[in-house]
Write a structure and sequence with these properties.
Order of helices and strands: EEEEEEEEHHH
Shape: rod-shaped
Helix content: 10-25%
Radius of gyration: 52 Å
Distance between the termini: 121 Å
Length: 200
């Protein structure tokens, strides 16, 4: 595991390095990376180092053996100076610049055409009340006279005031009328009649 270098903080990454050291690790193949993970323009040739996940310049891109410049893992002048294992690693450039630009533009157009899917949630509908609940809501719970008495109390008081008169009326109806029955009217049958149907 690489340890801290001589400096106390990470150094700036130069686009060109004169070091002839080459990492013994296998060469990094450009075609294995995604188009947005490397830049093949000669003015700013660089890629994202697979080890430290940071952008690192590629030195000697037009030479026979392009490689990553020596670099530290952290930010320059901020993080501790720890040399990355990907320093001086050879880079195999097997993708042409025109092909890389076309793939990058196609990926950008595809990403731009995407739209955020808006989730339309259905509004919550309150359950319909029962018939008894609707009747209870429509029926006032207090007397319309405004005296504050509830309806059940008003009904009880009204029935109590007419109960005696109703009972007397029922008793008078159950009694036989005085005197003879009228002659010009048919007699009222006193026995239950059970008529029989004629035979066919």
């Amino acid at each position: 595991m690489p340890g801290p270098t001589v400096g106390t903080t990470a150094r700036y990454r130069r686009s060109r390095a004169r070091s002839r050291n080459v990492s013994p690790r296998p060469a990094l193949v450009i075609s294995n990376l995604r188009p947005h993970q490397y830049d093949l323009r000669p003015a700013c040739a660089s890629l994202i180092c697979p080890d430290c996940r940071t952008w690192v310049p590629i030195t000697g891109i037009n030479a026979n053996k392009p490689k990553l410049v020596p670099h530290d893992t952290g930010l320059a002048q901020k993080a501790t100076a720890v040399r990355c294992q990907g320093s001086n690693r050879l880079v195999s450039i097997d993708v042409k610049v025109a092909e890389w630009q076309r793939r990058l533009e196609d990926g950008g157009a595809e990403t731009a055409s995407r739209r955020l899917t808006t989730v339309l949630r259905k509004p919550r509908v309150a359950p319909a009340p029962a018939v008894s609940q609707i009747a209870a809501q429509q029926r006032p719970s207090v007397d319309d006279d405004g005296d504050g008495r509830t309806l059940w109390l008003v009904r009880e008081m009204g029935w109590a005031s007419t109960e005696r008169a109703v009972r007397d009326t029922d008793m008078r109806r159950a009694q036989w009328p005085a005197g003879d029955a009228p002659l010009d009217s048919p007699p009222v049958p006193l026995d239950t009649l059970h008529p029989t149907l004629p035979r066919r």
